[in-house]
Fold this protein.
Amino acid sequence: MSSSLWDGASIGELRLRNRAVMPAMGTGYGSPSGEVTDRLISYLVRRAEGGVGLIVTEVCAVHPSGKGFVSELGIYDDLFMPGLEALAAAVKRKGAAVAAQLHHAGRETFAAVIGEQPVAPSPLPSRALGQVPRELSVTEIEELVSAFAAAARRAREAGFDAVEIHGAHGYLISQFLSPYSNRREDGYGGDGEGRMRFAREVVREVRREVGPGFPVIFRLSSSELLRGGYDLDYLLPLLPSLVAEGVDALHVSCGVYDSPGNPTCPGFHHPEGINVERAAAIRESVGVPVIVVGKLHDPRLAEEVLAGGKADLVAFGRQHLADPHFLAKAAEGRYEDIRFCLSCNQGCIERLMFELKPVTCTVNPACGRESEEERLRRRGGGPFLVVGAGPAGLQAALTLAESGSEVRVMERAEEPGGQLLAASRPPGKEPLLGWVGWAERRLRSLGVEIETGVEADDEALSLESWRGVISACGASPVIPSLPGTELGVNAEAREVLLGRRDVGGRVLVVGAGPVGMETAHYLISRGCAVTVVEEKEYPPVLPATSHGYFLHRALRESGELFLAAKVLEVRQGSAVVSVRGEVREMPVDAVVWAVGSRPEKDLAEKARSAGLKTVEVGDAVEPARLLEAVHSGWEAAMAMACGEEAT
Ligand SMILES: Cc1cc2nc3c(=O)[nH]c(=O)nc-3n(C[C@H](O)[C@H](O)[C@H](O)COP(=O)(O)OP(=O)(O)OC[C@H]3O[C@@H](n4cnc5c(N)ncnc54)[C@H](O)[C@@H]3O)c2cc1C
Ligand SMILES: Cc1cc2nc3c(=O)[nH]c(=O)nc-3n(C[C@H](O)[C@H](O)[C@H](O)COP(=O)(O)O)c2cc1C
Ligand code: SF4
């Protein structure tokens, strides 16, 4: 049977206002001892206001040994009850239902987080975290089954509408389920049935504890997408037994910690709706509603999935971070107003996992700072001048305009976007241009037209009595001065990506930072034979990130990367390169430089000399990433707008 996103839905006895779900997303907003905080509640309330039917909380640890990160919420003790009660009540007041996600990390944590050696079905570390766990005894397994059940009881008593058992993504239940991580020969291993036993017992005890009728959702990875891991064929015959124990809905995700390229949070290079076909197959074989998740950011795509009868509900994860109001906009048909998630992972999952910082969103600087945003409402003031319509300038102008301030934006190029025009050219990067289009439309709707083809100079600085100037002038690429870099075979990465310089044949890309690696990817996709050289001993782009994995894979399969390698001279038809101290001459048709950029400081200096209150943002401060550009633009504009007297 097919349905629409806007139809009501049922999970067990729970009635939902529509078929949109916000899946669990760890935030890092919990307290260091795992309690709910006001910040977490404000963030969730903002998402509930957006109109979603069901919100699943982030991971909640059912046992102290199962915490995956320091601020992971706890549900293993009654002392967590007041915070959990406040969270559930706050979300429900906004009309969304709320489920608690019950979690044990198993081996995917650190002794430093839990104060003891991590536990797992077998003493095998994952490649990702490398923590050698201790094998659980049968008595300990029984204890953990009871811990899941006790946590479910607490969730119910705290006022949650449902629980979701986290059986996905390589955590404890998923570790038991998988031949990749479970090598036990006792009743909890051996074959698929044995490996499913822990999950079955957890569901059985949870059901016994919460009683009939209370909705129990089970989240699973429909395939580990990993050599040696399980796939859908392995899983399908095991699912009916799980449903028989009392599962009311299955939530279909994919991947574990060691899956290459992190398909759990599909990045630039993964397909949209990565789990849809597996969800459809699962739906065919079980008699309970199926929730599908994974790069389904556009509600129109979700509608297609539901209309095609491939799932019963659709989960929008990162899209809720990027634009908490996207569902309300979609319901009104205002798709052009939606700020879409880029699938960059930079501000959310990779920030949480690799930078150990609380989650935010590259394109939504207010994510996790909802109470700060409140300060901005209709401050008024101005006029302000924003110079540069790259991401930093666009965001600064948006924030000022949203505060009701008068703002002018001057951009010397013929179109806005700054470096994003080049950054959106490599395969998979098109969403960056989508963001520029969104920012332009939003500014226009606030009455601000970007003045393109206008160089801001002394004259612009004296045009009006500016209350403040935001210099978002970005950074210009540098090409070092070496023998031969003046020859016509040299080009700069941005020019190449923008099609202003046509290069072909054998191309040497200098620099393996993000710009060099992406330029290499772009050139490979256009049939060039690409060699990348990098001075550093280690690749600056981490292969562990989703984007980095695909960039390195492209080079591995269709190009070459030399580390500790330095260009000494460029000649017509070749380049002299030192690789680990050994000098060699490489035949090349073009040399493309991607070795960094220099901040544009002139305008800010002029504005300061003119006595104007001036703030620099984005790459004009220091070349960094999109996140820093957007966030610094937002912060500067907030400070300027709030520094004004309300009018
Ligand atoms: C190929 C490439 C790929 C990239 N990919 C990524 C990525 O995947 N993820 C990521 O996070 N980052 C990426 N980046 C980096 C990211 O694009 C930059 O960090 C970001 O664009 C910086 O934003 P900005 O607004 O500070 O500066 P810019 O984007 O450089 O914009 C500055 C703007 O100011 C204008 N300007 C300058 N002086 C004046 C003046 N006097 N008057 C009028 N206008 C002026 C310029 O014309 C320009 O449009 C990439 C960069 C490149 C080149
Ligand atoms: C920052 C972040 C934290 C996440 N934390 C959890 C979690 O606590 N539990 C979980 O089951 N999945 C977690 N996920 C996975 C998401 O629930 C979701 O499956 C994934 O983001 C793919 O969906 P999307 O493409 O709609 O974002 C997390 C994802 C992100 C981006
Ligand atoms: S940081 Fe990137 S992937 Fe994460 S929600 Fe924001 S736009 Fe999406």
Notes: The CA atoms of residues 118 and 209 lie 27 Å apart. The longest helix spans residues 138-157.
